[in-house]
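Page 42, continued from yesterday. The earlier attempt failed because a stray header line got pasted into the input along with the sequence. Redoing it now with the clean sequence only.
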Amino acid sequence: MSSDASSSLSIRPWLAVTAAIVSLVSSGCAEGQEVRTTRIDTPRGGLETECSVPLVFSKRHGLIAFGCDDGSIPIVGFHGPARTIQDAFVLDAMSVTDTDAGLSALAFRPAGPDGEPASLMSIDLIAGTRSAQDLEGVEDVDALEVNAAGDCLLAARSDRARGADYRITAHNMRGRGSVAEAVRRPPDIQVDVTGNEASSVGSLAHGFSRCMIGPDGKPALLLTRIRPVDGVAEFTLELHTAGAAPRRLYQARAQWAVLPRQAGYRLAIIEGGTGKLGLIDLSGPIPALTWVAFDGHWLHYDPSDGTGVVIRDPGPPGGQGGADSRGPLVAVQCDPLVSEPVCRDAEVLSRSAAEAYPTGIGTAGSGVIMQYSEVTVSPGSTAYRPRMRWLFRDAP
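This time it went through. Structure tokens are written below.
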């Protein structure tokens, strides 16, 4: 990390700070050992695995892939037997491609201090196979990320020997070959950043900077700046385009997540402190940020179909869905076709929920996997029941 003041704040994405809570069921092994099983409730019934961290999920193919501590990726689903990819050691996917023809994910591993080259792992979640490709000439790359449309690549770079000189680069991938080719080309956009700002790249679930291809066919980088002000962190969302001065879109003293899914030239952000949902539209000559008028602390929103999840009355400001802030957890349906959508309650998921947050990566229309604790209060005690639910629209 750099030694400047803003790096010393050690900022992390706000959705990532909540401890992982999973639905655990114990069952006995033949040797008398205890097996921990994670159950995921879905509109098509329950799915179970011995791992607790969803990696990728697809409604189209009816499956969830998990990341395990032993490096394996178990895959469970509705349409076939469970299978496992061994020795993958993937914590985050840098991109997901979900089509009728297949489901795949890419993962990036930076160059090692011992001279081991950077590598790109391709994971076929239908076939249950993986393959790796060494990437020469990208020793300065710390993380990679491809946007939801698959046409814009972000790279976080640094002088790794000195742990300084951080940069974020954006690359147009439309008709320009593979990730391996794009990351080696001169960038369309390059911005000097701090170490904390560079950490926004490489996490599709919790990132706070994204790129997309604008109406002009060129990359647009939504970059979150972080600086200390009066002992606290101030966050500024900037729009960077090639050959133009940065344009400030929003500023607050609470971090946000820029959600990974997009609909055309529209993205969404959720502010961590207030839980407000904002919609960013880059289709016009002037970028627009519109706040959705709806009561509740937003946890998820998909601009492609207008589905979302909110928690009502989540306790004191800044609770961020933590154990001391709970309320009804509600699935919401909005009109995705208007710039200021009207939203309504679709389903009450829990009358009293805490520690609620989305987990795993799905593409547009795949729904969301929510982890939360269902809270039951009785005289003299408060009980927390961990739950995991995959929420999606399904035909009756």
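Notes: The two ends are 51 Å apart (CA to CA).
Reminder to self: strip header lines before submitting.
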